[in-house]
Amino acid sequence: MNKSFFSLIIIAMIATGCTTTKSIQYPAKGSNTTISVSSEQISAMTESGGGDHFIEGSQITVGDASNALSNPASNAFGLIGVGVATAIDKRNNGAAISNSNLKQAIKFDEIVNKKISSALQENQADTSLKLMTSNQASDVKIVPFARLSFKEKPDVKAVFGLKAEFKNAADNNKSAKRLYNYISQKKAPLTEWDANNNTVFFTQANKAFDALAQVLVLDIQHQLNLEAPSEANQKKCKSTSDFSGITFISAPENLCVGVLKTNKGVVLPNFVLVIEQ
Hints:
Elements: H1 3-15, E1 34-37, E2 53-54, E3 60-63, H2 72-75, H3 78-96, H4 109-122, E4 130-131, E5 140-149, E6 155-168, E7 174-189, H5 190-220, H6 231-236, E8 247-248, E9 257-259, E10 271-275
Parallel strand pairs: 1-4, 1-5, 3-5, 7-10
Antiparallel strand pairs: 2-3, 5-6, 6-7, 8-9, 9-10
Helix pairs in contact: 4-5
């Protein structure tokens, strides 16, 4: 995931009223909160880069194979220009993955359900929390996703994430969402991601969703404070060449967890980053 992609997501969420600088809180401890993992896709409108290609039946999107949408000329013709540029990018992003083994209906709900279950077994401070089977109505809906970026082609990078939807206990139970993103340092040609039945891809996915599940379980149980920067982690944790300005917060020793802030130093509570070291 690169800086321009994050910017697009933030802008889209602001435009649709989906992001805020107000506090976001999960239901209170002891509320018998239920969690379920969904096999649906993330929103093309507010949770993916403009022009991203959605692999049919999959929770994987593809982006950055072309940059028509970021070309200033596309804005010169208003909505028509933006629409044409978006269509061009979608076509090129789809073409970039057309011969890949990853162009198939890959879902992450089962693996994420298992990861959350394991994380709860290791750390369940709220015994009233209940993890349900996938695709059930619940208080907290989790949607896993992955994005392949061709920004550094011929190298490809993969980002994995979880979207959480729930009622914000800090804002009269209004609908809220939080995106957890695992920023991997791994980059390689698409052929390497494809090799041996996508072994590299699924190895990275397993590592990413393991870390993301740990962070999610901490957060749902109010054990992750986005407003608590850690000086030690700021020194220890390395940021990513794709994204700077991350503030690292207090987290378990095996994880480097960070947040984004506005230019006034206010935390954007819709986004949590886990940076691979």
